[in-house]
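BUG-337 | component: ligand-complex export | severity: low

The export step for adenosine-5'-triphosphate jobs runs without errors, but we want the raw record kept on the ticket for reference. Input record follows.
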Amino acid sequence: MPPSSTSAASSATERVLGKKLGIDLGTATLRVVTRGEGTLITEPAVVAMRDGEAANSLLGNAAFEARAQDRTIVLRRPLDGGDVRDHAALAALVQQAVNRAVGRQRIFKPDIVIAVRAGMDGDGRRSVLDAGARAGARTVYLIDAAIAAAMGAGIAITSSRPYLVVDIGAGKTDVAVLALEGTVAGRSLRGGGDQLFRGLAAQVEATHAVVLDRDELRSAGRLLVAATHEERTAEIGGVLLSSHELAPMVSDHLRPLDRALLEVLEDTPPALRRDLRSTGLLLTGGGARLEGLDRHLAGVTGCSVRVAADPEGCTVRGTALAVDNLDLLRRNFMYLR
Ligand SMILES: Nc1ncnc2c1ncn2[C@@H]1O[C@H](COP(=O)(O)OP(=O)(O)OP(=O)(O)O)[C@@H](O)[C@H]1O
Ligand SMILES: [Mg+2]
């Protein structure tokens, strides 16, 4: 049955007055932006569930605080390796994020764009769409994290000029050649920065019997990729660490990424591949901050590498731009209304 003119008019009003939210559903960090208001939520992607109800849950730092007061509270992380691990916790996380961004009492439903890893399976995608719908969205769209990141870094993805984008987060790594609004070739890997730092911690503990804290690990991180190019040493956590001893672990960690990049270039039509030499590789996500990684990836791909400004913020900025371009999302991505 065609919609009545009243409901068509009210839906048009809703479209104009309803808020537009962009959500970057990161493995480690949830980021939310409300278009036009610049409101930004940045919280650890964790919830404390009370009575198993999304409505009674706490998000991010408030969840950690509640847990510190009450050891019976359970903290749940919805994502693992960029995939949905805990569906109920995901629903709670999205519900709390939407409540915080647009308020519990609202007249108009928001449109929501959520960035997820390209390799997320159908079950995971359905679960994210459902979480958005249950949180009260009018329409929920999913966008690939690498596309959102490229948009957030200022790349015009509607252009015929291709870009190679590498988004390295805490739990996943997306590699994509983008052109004409779409992904020409891509690989989506589980594993990101956290895996590298876990490997680093384990190796230092095994060889030096020292457990490094977070800051020490970050300092030791400066020896990592640079290690594949030059010899460096640093005293960290009371032991002398050398880049030389860490190099094999780093190479093992980077091998899947190196392979994915070569495969993606191989899958890219030769004319576009040639263009990539001039447009280059854009590195986004927190993992982009790893010192020396740009040089390493330039060596692997033969492309010039640019580390995005504020690399962790690119994806959520891109989702805010995407909500202004819902036609693009309807053409290219899954959505639910
Ligand atoms: N200076 C740095 N050097 C190396 N790695 C860093 C640095 N700063 C942050 N990182 C890494 O960045 C990662 C977090 O990145 P980001 O916030 O983009 O992840 P996310 O979006 O939550 O996760 P994902 O995109 O994988 O789902 C962590 O693994 C962290 O170790
Ligand atoms: Mg991310």
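Assignee comment: Attached the raw record above. The pocket of adenosine-5'-triphosphate (ligand 1) is lined by residues 26-29, 82, 169-172, 192-194, 197, 221, 285-287, 289-290, 312 (CB under 6 Å).
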